[in-house]
Design goal:
Number of helices: 5
Largest sheet: 4 strands, antiparallel
Number of strands: 6
Shape: globular
Order of helices and strands: HEEHHHEEEEH
Helix content: 25-40%
Length: 139
């Protein structure tokens, strides 16, 4: 486990994913900790998945965050890939996975008041996927 990955959730809470064994994810059962206590109740982190039609935009924020949790936790615990990423100057760890045939990128803050919490998620474009792989060191 690298230092960057270990810092996501206080160290010792990451494990190798089952999809190829290369990607480090949250230990099974602890991915939910990254969803609990998200900034703005989670509304900011989930908005792109709402726009992409993966989460209903109607209903209470609580019900929409539950729908997000259903998507995010399996990706956080069993990612196909992880990579360092910076969002607005904030160092994060990206977790890549698939939901309903679409690749989803979920970002967890590595420092600051939301360290260990999901700060963003979106459906990456082909150009973003290339950048994520470059950020991860894959040519």
């Amino acid at each position: 486990m690298d230092d960057v990955g270990a810092s996501i959730n206080g160290g010792g809470r990451l494990s190798a994913g089952e999809q190829g064994g290369k990607a480090l994810g949250f230990v099974r059962g602890l991915g939910v900790t990254a969803v609990q206590g998200m900034r703005a109740g989670g509304g900011h982190a989930i908005r792109h998945l709402e726009a992409g039609g993966l989460i209903p935009s109607a209903g209470s924020l609580t019900s929409r965050v539950r729908a997000f949790e259903h998507i995010a936790v399996p990706i956080l615990e069993n990612p196909t890939d992880t990579f360092p990423w910076t969002l607005g100057g904030l160092p994060t760890r990206g977790f890549l996975g698939t939901y309903q045939g679409q690749q989803i990128a979920i970002f967890v803050a590595q420092e600051g008041p939301y360290q260990g919490k999901v700060v963003a998620a979106f459906i990456p474009t082909p150009a973003q996927l290339i950048a994520m792989r470059v950020a991860h060191g894959v040519p």
